[in-house]
Protein 1
Amino acid sequence: MKESLHAFFEQHRLKMTDARRTLLRVLQEAKSPMSYEQMKPVMEQTMDKATFYRNMAKFEALDIVTKFESDDRKWYFELSKGMHAHFICEACHQITCMDVNLGVVEGDVKSIVLKGTCKECRA
């Protein structure tokens, strides 16, 4: 993984810092989008919010990550993986990525958030 991260940073012409390496590793291992509060306990190093958000803004500008705001007023981040929607369960607040066919959309769609109750909470 070290070699692939090194190549990744070279490809995007980014300086490889401990903070950036840590953030990318956490996002690579994430099963769903994560907020700062969710990422903080699993990061290999202590990182303040300013460092976190500054690096995430850089990653977003380079289309490495995408973000969206949930109804809990937090930003959630994930590695860019093309257009898809996020389903947020209003009962348990679990976020699930969903493939959707948008057909022809004119303009730049930043995020699609669907809300409802997941099948686990409906049961």
Protein 2
Amino acid sequence: MKIAIVQRVIFHYRTGLFHEISKIWTTRVFHGDSVSGSKVVNAQPPYPFDTHKLFTYCKRAKNNPQQILFFNPGLVPALWRWNPDILLLEGSNNMLNNIVVYLYCRLLKKKYIWWGIGTVPGRKESIYRKILTPFRRHIIKKSDAILAYCTLSAEYFAKITNRKKIHVFPNSLNNVEIEHDIAQYTAEDKESLRAELGLEPDCVTLLYVGALEPNKRLEVLFDVFNTLHSKGLKIKLLIIGSGSAEERFRTYAEKIELQDCLFLGKILTKVNLYFQIADIFVLPGRGGLAVNQALINGLPVVCNTPADGTELDMISHGKNGYLLEDMNAEVLQEHLEKMLSKQKYLEMGRESRKIVEQRYNINEMIRVLENVV
């Protein structure tokens, strides 16, 4: 069985999954070039699976540089030569490629699987997405199977096509690789990093990891952290990530004279060590996979909803975190204080690990894919 995985790029958070897939089936990932100044960036090679890199044409939207029209003109000839049995398509973000791949599949009677989130609650669709909606719905409807990121995604796809071919494919990182990475860190490693960052033994550390983009709404977190800090709580805040709104967030932090908050920039290597020294993960805006990484590291999560829909499957409100609808400063403060009370965050963190072990893990993803293929 030969599986062709068609992606814009090989995102660093997908390498673990593709590696696991390649252990079971003959796999090749067809991908394009990184797009400078965006989140669409290839992980650092070499990769532990077969790949085919293609020439890339891309065009950014004038009003939003993060909206990128992406196309690989050599994709179909490359697929034709390799002759896969099944194609796994990335989803809505790769629509121009998906259209030509759909025509290739129809012509050669190839099976294809649509893999995506479907819709993000509250997200305003661009003109580009609206124009391509009829094509997207048709390709989804004609697919041989749908892999939905989460339960909410499955409900969206069920409005378009037969529910029987829709499978929830939990949008998880490779927890096995992350757990192996975590196991390498000693107590001395953690204490050394805490000392380097100036984290006192009895302080509670709040963590945000993700892109620094306007829709992350970090101002809400800064306001609440400032209020809690002014009450005398021994807390620290770590911000990991980079992006187009980084300067804006830094300026806002300076404006409100935010103390005990560290902007650490983008960290990929050893990022789990930072999760390990943190106590609570906070996501005040859009996001998803960082929540999964927090759970794998045994952290409770305070999360805005809607984020991307996956949080509804990963977080049990009041058990391993809190889901706060359209999070504002007042509500976030209330729930952080509740979590800090009597160190409730410790028990909630243990519940996060249970969710990973029971249903949100790489083994569950592979199990679902085996059933589909």
Protein 3
Amino acid sequence: MYELCQKRARKRAIPATPTIVKRKVPRRRRNSDYRSREYLSEKEVGEVIAAAAKQGRHGLRDSALILIAYRHGLRVSELVSLRWDQIDFAQGLVHVARLKNGMASVHPLRGPELRALRRFAAGGCEHRLCVRE
């Protein structure tokens, strides 16, 4: 039986005994070796917002949410849980319910944020700003 396996292995050019090679996984370099900083500049964020506005059918929503997240330092979970009743257009405020033991707070909305949210709201939206599909 062993000899038969040996012959078949030779015919298919498969080694009779597998070779074992001990390989090392290369260590990951520090982030500072890859890039000089860990954040986006205001210009880069503007480019991301402009690109998001041109992509897909929810470009207006995406660009508005990126702007809000950037200006107010929101986590993704805080951003997607925002509801329209948390935004006060008359006074230009947004009520943020912080997660991870953070305290709820009220943030002022500046001109570009208000304009982006008003354009987004004019499209007839759901209860939440971000609805999963």
Protein 4
Amino acid sequence: MFNLKVVGIDLAFANMGLCRALISQEAVKVTDLRLVKTEGFEGKSVRKNSSDLRRAQELQTALISFCEGATLAFCEIPHGSQSARASWSLGISVGVLASCKVPVIQLSALEVKMVTVGKKTASKQEMIEWAVARHPAAPWLYSKKRLVAANEHLADAVATIYAGMKTDEFKRLVALLSQPNDGGETARKMFQDTHYLSGLGAGIPRYKKRKLT
């Protein structure tokens, strides 16, 4: 058996979603959710780059604090931008992630959507519905008893944990953390568990031996 404290990260400059969870062979238990919002206050008295620096510091402080005590984190690494400003924000976000004090398992947007909703075109609303259905007791954001759109960032943070648990990198880590005197039984059971049906080697073609010439 294993129990790991992990963090799921939805990385963004304006709205960073964070999820803290306890994961085991049987279940994923979300213990906390947090939305970190940053706003620009640039104007005649504040330069835009100074405002960006402040916002980056706010994200960094929140990320390091939230990850305290965790074994590792999962994050969908953002990529691509359609403007110079978007590229600038993306660079700052990736820089903030680089300051994370725990190991980070990197994921693509496609991996996260396929593992959770099951389709690469999953909408923000579908991601929210998926996450809330699995963790209805989690501290989601409400307004007048209705879920708000900002939950998309929290839902994505939750989803990164599920997607990260499917990666070979995570499986190898769990195998290393398993009890060394059980003959690998814990690791074998993990690979057979329903959470990990796509275990190591799934879908990987076998290589044929070739004669050396």
